[in-house]
Amino acid sequence: MSEPAVRIENISKSYKLLHRQKGQNDSIISAFAGGLKDVFKRCEERNSTEEFWALKDINLELNKGDRIGIIGRNGAGKSTLLKILSRIVKPTTGRMEYDGRMASLLEVGTGFHGDLSGRENIYLNGSILGMSKKEIDAKFEEIVAFSEVEKFLDTPVKRYSSGMYVRLAFAVAAHLESEILIVDEVLAVGDVAFQKKCLGKMKEISGQGKTILFVSHNMAAIQNLCNKGMILSGGRVKLGVSEAQHAIKEYMKDSSLLGKTKLINRTDREGEGQIRFENIALVDADGTELNGVHSGQEINIVVETLIKQSHVTNISLAITFYSDEGIEMLTFANHIADKPFDELHQKQKLVCNIKKFPLTRGEYVANVSIYKDSILQDYIREGFALTVYEGDFYGNGRILPGNQPSVLVDYTWKIQ
Prior knowledge:
Rossmann fold; 9 helices; 2 domains; alpha+beta
């Protein structure tokens, strides 16, 4: 059985939130008029505090070589947990145990001194980890080559761009002799090629027995890197340590955005009304309902309708996706694909299967419309919303960028 590399028991962290109530402004003049003591007393009476638990009763045990993705929405407590593990923040309750040295990369600038050069910061970080100069010398060239900042190595890092900063910081954290590596969302600052390089390096070092804790909103990155995952919500464990794929699936199901939308009560609709949209759901290839999808993921859009007769004929259905800027991206329509619905009975569902979902990362909305005999029966603007996450669309290990909404196409090249 593997030895635990990290063990935390009942870790909690609370903060005092100050609520300042409205009241008469206290000024220097009022201080002289009524005395400083009275001013302080009035301030205390008007202010109140509230205890806020950023983390509550967190338990975690990781074995050497584990790669865990910590998943959760903004405010779930992910970064607070990593700061506690990195000993940047002291927990309110609980205890932690480590087996080995720990390196952290939590935000741009962590562990670096801005006035020191890149070269000097490499040696500074190594010394903090307890390495000798000889040990750092042995790793130095490898760190510089990986970071790709050799030209600026003797420049103070405060003059680095955020991307250069992250390159060097990750190179230092990944190459110096630590047994535990903690990485927050900071990698999102780097370009896509460097992100892929970092993920590859983390896989490599985990194979050497190092333990990795990784926080990211990029489910594709967690899927590619991590063998385990856990979900935090509201400072508590929503899903304990489990297989990474299971954790990702559970998180996607619980996304706050709409994946299953009840449409029957919508009043902002147009059309003759012989057919009405009742519900639309997104499900994966296994039939699990989704609230978001990855680029390249196989999904089904399942449409339920209400019809006034026992059956209707000659049906056309269209689902059109728009970016969050209102740009029309693509349409899935049976008549365009020459797949007519000759007859639709009550309680039947219309299913659109998409083998590889083609939109890049972003937020989208979809308008839905249905026709009978080319006459509009029901139309709902923004019938449902959808979050698309980065994914390996082409199946080559590359996580494609999502800097702006776009459509991906499956294609091949050859030489003739």
